[in-house]
Write a structure and sequence with these properties.
This protein is an alpha+beta fold and 102 residues long. It has one domain. Strands 1, 2, 3, 4, 5, 6 and 7 form a seven-stranded antiparallel β-sheet that branches. A hairpin with a 3-residue loop joins strand 4 and strand 5.
């Protein structure tokens, strides 16, 4: 696995419905070429979830899919009743993603 530099890094805290909170750093690494027409981004979330390698056909697709995977993971946690915190305040996950007009 490549140790590419992170494109983004954000300190968060996951507060589950039961059990202690989990401070973690969300990082998405810069896309890297693994082999011809297969680019990868590694999404890591510390103790919240194991690192996941996301593949795409080009660097933009790999990066978009990696960010969407992070959104899906965090959204699934919230839908299960958990809370995401950032610097002591509720983390506004929806504010980070485009919503088309209705």
């Amino acid at each position: 696995m490549s140790e590419a530099a992170p494109v983004l890094s954000l300190e968060l805290e996951a507060v589950p419905t039961d059990g202690p909170s989990i401070p973690f750093k969300l990082e998405v690494q810069r896309p890297f070429l693994e082999r011809e027409m297969q680019w990868r981004c590694v999404v890591s979330m510390g103790n919240f979830q194991r690192p996941t390698r996301i593949a795409g056909g080009d660097p933009l697709q790999a990066l978009c899919l990696a960010i969407d995977f992070a959104r899906w993971t965090l959204r699934t946690f919230e839908e299960g009743g958990g809370k995401l915190m950032c610097e002591g305040d509720r983390f506004p996950l929806d504010a980070y993603f485009f919503k088309p007009p209705e």
